[in-house]
Design brief:
The structure is a single chain. By secondary structure, the protein is α+β, with helices and mostly antiparallel strands. The chain has a single domain, classed as 3-Layer(aba) Sandwich (Trna Endonuclease, Chain: A, domain 1). It is 27% helix and 37% strand. The protein is built from 3 helices and 7 strands. The strands form 2 sheets. A 5-stranded mixed sheet has the order 1-4-5-6-7, with helices on both faces. Strand 6 and strand 7 form a beta hairpin. The longest helix is centred in the N-terminal third of the chain and has 13 residues.
Amino acid sequence: MAGNTQRTMKMLREGGAMCAVVERWNQYGGLHGVRNDLFGIIDVLAISKERGILGIQVCAMSGRAAHLEKLTVDKRDESIAWLQAGGHLEIHAWRKLLVKRGGKAKRWTPDVTTITLDMLGK
């Protein structure tokens, strides 16, 4: 996950945003430690003139469905509170895609999903 988080941070900074990792490691949580997201829903926090305050959940493409369920079902109340307070919420799911059809070179590319109040039934 650290690699995907760094990719998201680089992309945000290149777009002119200020950003910080707000997910923390708790070595005493669970049997082997656990990662704690800000409010249970945010890995990276960004501030952008164009987009305002943005909370981002970062994952690999294989974890996109689980993270979508986390934000829209498991942590629905937290997501609603964040959005109603004026924040924006996204999932950045990273995967490698071919640069050119028929070629061999691949590039890391994010699949960005914006979470809206409509998705949460509000």
